[in-house]
Inverse folding.
């Protein structure tokens, strides 16, 4: 089991007298900036002048600067812009302005691990990655709790990078829940694998395959949606709070027996073999290079066309209709 660290293992005093610059004020940016500020850290937010988030951040009591000025002011600079834009932001505004002994921080390892950002050797480079969306990082902090987070050191120029990264993690509240040490390689590769094979790619294709099977056999799309898509949340919520055992305790014995008989016929040895291939293509950079060239040369032609085609699948049409009947869902 990986070792967990808590507030008592972190020295938040290491951030005293330092300025932490948060670049970006989106999902993660607003949570990191506000939590650190409430933890007594001197925070500056870096945004484009045109950003609609400038007002929001100022209203929350934060100091807002142009990205390049915020970088120049930072002893620690956390880059919280979308990953596919981070390399451009780094080249244009971070690299030319970063203090020589500063610490550069990320919340995801992609750009460092796949060499899209190559930091100067005279800075520290580390990661602090909460395992939850920004609004949870903020709301948990306000309730006196935290979201478990990962941290990793890529470059330890000062000799203090690990301690500083842990202090930052504690500053955003993660030390209340648990902080786990990893590497940029492990975080990046497991994150990509999870979202592709299981969470996003795996789940949506499984749902669509089930939906299509029922509809092609003549059952109504509404029934197919309820059974193969809608009820997923129920099951996942049970697993999330109590593991497979709690889910199986809650479902009927018939459902549990069917689970044991059929699961392995759906996720077969073939599927597991393909998962290994997917992992290999993440490890050897095949996926990263596809995604990077999609963003650069291809102008996202394939990505955007696929998004449009996916939105046209019947499961999306019937789902939109049925969700209108569910008054508890946020519009
Ligand atoms: P968001 O898409 O929410 O961040 C958007 C912010 O980036 C906005 O403030 C936006 O500015 C700013 N931005 C975009 N382009 C530029 C630019 N060219 N120059 C300056 N600022 C720019 O990102 P997330 O918070 O989702 O992700 C940030 C990092 O956190 C990523 O590395 C991600 O992998 C990681 N992460 C995200 C999690 C999540 O739950 N979302 C969970 C864990 C890690 P503007 O205000 O002008 O629009
Ligand atoms: Mg990811
Ligand atoms: Mg059922």
């Amino acid at each position: 089991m990986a070792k967990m660290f808590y507030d008592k293992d972190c020295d938040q005093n290491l951030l005293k007298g330092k300025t932490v610059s948060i670049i970006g004020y989106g999902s993660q940016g607003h949570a990191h900036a506000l939590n650190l500020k409430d933890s007594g850290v001197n925070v500056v937010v870096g945004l484009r002048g045109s950003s609609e988030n400038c007002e929001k951040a100022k209203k929350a009591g934060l100091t807002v600067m142009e990205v390049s000025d915020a970088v120049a002011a930072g002893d620690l600079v956390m880059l919280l812009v979308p990953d596919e834009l981070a390399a451009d932001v780094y080249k244009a505004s971070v690299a030319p302005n970063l203090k020589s002994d500063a610490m550069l921080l990320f919340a995801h390892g992609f750009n460092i691990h796949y060499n899209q950002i190559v930091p100067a050797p005279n800075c520290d480079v580390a990661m602090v990655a909460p395992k939850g969306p920004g609004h949870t990082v903020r709301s948990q902090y306000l309730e006196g709790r935290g979201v478990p987070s990962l941290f990793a050191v890529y470059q330890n120029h000062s000799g203090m990078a690990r301690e500083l990264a842990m202090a930052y993690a504690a500053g955003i509240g993660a030390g209340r829940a648990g902080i786990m040490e990893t590497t940029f390689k492990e975080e990046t590769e497991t994150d990509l694998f999870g979202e592709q094979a299981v969470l996003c790619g795996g789940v949506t294709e499984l749902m669509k395959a089930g939906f299509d099977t029922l509809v092609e056999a003549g059952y109504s799309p509404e029934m197919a949606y309820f059974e193969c898509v809608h009820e997923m949340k129920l099951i996942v919520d049970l697993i999330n709070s109590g593991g497979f055992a709690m889910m199986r305790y809650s479902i009927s014995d018939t459902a549990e027996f069917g689970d044991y008989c059929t699961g392995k016929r759906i996720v077969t040895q073939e599927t597991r073999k393909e998962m290994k291939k997917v992992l290999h293509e993440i490890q050897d950079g095949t996926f990263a290079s596809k995604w990077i060239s999609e963003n650069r040369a291809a102008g996202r032609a394939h990505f955007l066309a696929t998004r449009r085609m996916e939105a046209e699948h019947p499961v999306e049409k019937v789902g939109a209709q049925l969700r209108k009947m569910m008054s508890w869902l946020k519009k």
About this structure: Residues 54 and 64 are 7 Å apart (CA to CA). The first helix runs from residue 27 to 38. The pocket of NDP (ligand 1) is lined by residues 24-29, 47-48, 51, 53, 67, 80-83, 85, 89, 107-108, 129-130, 133-134 (CB under 6 Å).
